[in-house]
Specification:
The complex is a heterodimer of chains A (445) and B (209). Chain A has 445 residues and is of the alpha/beta class. Chain A contains 18 helices and 11 strands. In chain A, β7, α14 and β8 form a beta-alpha-beta unit. The chains are: A alpha/beta (445), B alpha/beta (209).
């Protein structure tokens, strides 16, 4: 790199990240064809996102969590507990369907770690929901209405001593821990250590060690999959993850109901808590993106969708902080990929505030034509083949839907073919139709 | 009718509304009047939601205010005749799916609009729906589901209702995350809704004929 990172502007940083993504260290491509296929897919992605050039064809990026398991008749429980099975099933899907971009099996997580922690935030296949079900979040007030100040004062401490003990039965003992910061002189050391002598705390630490072992063994399988997939010419479609600050509070801390009531009762605390979370979330996105050498930061959006709040509330509580995270990532040369689950029809004007050609928005039930008209010059659009169509529709119906997307939304580029939501299942012939019709009909002439 | 109380509740002025309700009771006012005002206010909230002035947070907050009012007047409330309901609706999230946010909002809106609602909760086996239809003689069933696995569970529930010989007597509506017309046809439901208001309108059309 000619320029020092700090001297680069955000565009130069993005280019540097693209370069790194195009020529990753430590990969040994299986063939010249695999290497050129890998690079072609990244250039296709870059052209679609940056809006300056029409790509060679519409990029193909089916979105999923447990989809490959369903296709090959493996249960979700199996892939959560058998990382070898997980990796081989995900690889089979890639070889079989050959999408341009994949999502990492890391999204499936590891059942052994959840068991070791007695994880309560989600029910997972075979544990509270059927073995064929995806994992499902259990919404509760894991943070109480009067705990905003504790979160704002010390997010890390709040997470360790209040949040984790509540969402993990085996980590209950962590609630006895004090702040490690208090240990700054010899006479202060012993008092800080006392809780670590308690059986409750030690039992929590043992559970963490057990879960850590599970995670370490699991990540070796995930890492091997990533390397193998890329060496075969497939491209990972998400290098890191971040969230909208409002959703961090609303999804798994206060819960939907609590959060909605807080907007009336504690508006200033919601704002302060989000201000506190913004830099943490930006760092979280950048860190994972750097580790994976992939500039795309996936951001699932939830509580800002149409109907979930008024425009006034969106403008005050949701958008400013989401925008800060998005801008923070863009400034560091990352590419936010925002999954706008539900409808975003009433929010489209806001998206114009994001710099042109620097983000991808995956739409679910948003009116694609309206979105193209309002923000087609600003963002790269992705979506939105409905799950209803992919799960119950025929290949012909899917083809028709995709062709229309290609003709209208894909016109002149700026579009990525995807499902409207993260798939846990699909009819194989319908999924194949979506991929193949795009491969043929999606070529730009 | 205490119009001031109606306005405070429907304008979501929680503190004022609770203070006012408390004062009325302290001064020996009739708790039934407070309840009537609260009911009128909730109708107003529903109206504002219907025309797009209010959104889901407003509904949830109004529900919280209502709970506060009820807890103030409850100790003073003599056994009163239950208000006449517009009809009964059975609601539940289908088997395998544990999501309840959308379902709860539908339940709340139906309740506000004067329907008697039997909320079966989440992950509801098909037989539980059937038992409840027989027990309550309700004529409308709402099936909720967020995940795609709900498509099949909804279809199985509709089929089971048919096999139990109850299908002709009842109307079935479905809703949630990925539910659309295609899934309505797939499951054999009578209608689908995009939001809680659709559910209210469907129930009204079916039960008020």
């Amino acid at each position: 790199m000619a320029k020092n990172w700090k001297e680069m502007n955000s565009g130069e940083k993005l280019e540097a990240r693209f370069e790194k993504w195009l020529s990753p260290e430590g990969l040994d491509f299986k063939s010249l064809e695999a290497k050129s296929s890998y690079q072609r897919k990244i250039i296709r992605f870059r052209d679609a996102v940056q809006l300056d050039k029409t790509p060679d064809r519409v990029p193909i990026f089916p979105f999923y969590t447990f989809l490959p398991a369903d296709i090959y008749g493996v249960t979700n429980e199996q892939v959560m507990y058998d990382p070898e099975k997980l990796a081989s099933t995900w690889m089979r899907y890639l070889e079989d369907y050959r999408p341009d971009y994949y999502l990492s099996p890391a999204l499936v997580s590891t059942g052994q770690a959840l068991d070791a922690l007695d994880y309560k935030l989600y029910k997972w296949p075979g544990h509270g929901v059927p073995p064929t079900s995806p994992y499902q979040c259990v919404e509760k007030e894991y943070m109480k209405e009067d705990e905003y100040d504790a979160l704002i004062e010390d997010p890390s401490g709040f997470w360790t001593t209040r949040y984790l003990p509540r969402i993990c039965g085996a980590l209950d003992g962590l609630k006895f821990l004090g702040s490690a910061v208090e240990n700054c002189e010899l006479p202060l050391l012993a008092p800080m250590l006392i809780p670590y002598g308690l059986p409750e705390v030690q039992s929590a630490l043992k559970a963490l060690m057990k879960a850590g072992n599970a995670a370490l063994s699991w990540v070796q399988h995930i890492g091997a999959f990533e390397k193998e997939a890329q060496e075969r010419g497939f491209v990972n479609g998400a290098g890191g993850v971040a969230k909208a600050p409002f959703d961090v509070l609303g999804d798994t801390l206060r819960g939907t109901q609590g959060m909605m009531i807080d907007m009336y009762r504690h508006p200033e605390k919601i704002v302060k808590a989000q201000e506190r979370l913004v830099p943490i979330l930006i760092k979280m996105g950048i860190k994972a993106s750097e580790m994976s050498g992939n500039p795309i930061v996936f951001m699932p959006l939830h509580k800002g969708a149409d109907g979930f709040m008024s425009d006034e509330q969106f403008k005050k509580f949701y958008w400013p902080f989401l925008k800060e995270v998005v801008m923070g990532l863009i400034e560091e040369g990352c590419l936010p990929l925002l999954f706008a689950e539900g409808g975003y029809n009433t929010r489209l004007e806001y998206l114009k505030e994001i710099p042109r050609g620097r983000s991808i928005w995956l739409f679910d039930r948003t009116d694609m034509c309206k979105a193209k008209e309002i923000v087609g010059d600003t963002i790269c659009m992705a979506g939105n083949v409905p799950a209803s169509l992919l799960v119950t529709g025929t290949a012909r119906e899917v083809e028709g839907y995709c062709k229309e997307l290609i003709d209208t939304i894909g016109k002149n580029g700026g579009f990525i073919m995807s499902s409207g939501t993260s798939l846990d299942e699909a009819r194989p012939e319908s999924l194949r139709a979506m991929i193949e019709v795009t491969r043929e009909y999606g070529v730009y002439k | 009718m205490n119009e001031e109380l109606v306005a405070k509740i429907s304008d979501l002025q929680e503190e004022d509304a609770l203070r006012l309700a408390g004062n009325i009771i302290k001064q020996g006012g009739d708790p039934n009047d407070v309840l009537a005002a609260a009911r009128k206010a909730m109708e107003e909230v529903g109206q504002r939601f219907a025309v797009g002035d209010y959104f889901i947070p407003d509904l949830i907050y109004s529900g919280t205010i209502l709970k506060g009012i009820v807890s103030i007047i409850k100790p003073h409330l003599k056994q009163e005749e239950a208000p006449k309901k517009k009809g009964a609706v059975i609601i539940g999230t289908v088997a395998g799916d544990v999501h309840d946010i959308g379902k709860d909002i539908v339940v709340f809106m139906l309740d506000c609009n004067g329907f008697e609602v039997f909320d079966l909760g989440i992950d509801v086996p098909k037989q539980v729906f059937i038992d409840k239809i027989i027990e309550t003689n309700a004529k409308v069933v709402g099936l909720s589901g967020f995940l795609t696995l709900a498509f099949e569970a909804m279809k199985e529930t509709v089929d089971a209702i048919k096999e139990a010989g109850l299908r002709d007597e009842i109307k079935i509506m479905i809703g949630g995350g990925q539910i659309d017309e295609k899934i309505m046809n797939y499951t054999g439901a009578d209608a689908y809704g995009n939001d809680a208001l659709d559910a209210v309108n469907l129930a009204r059309d079916w039960l008020m004929q």
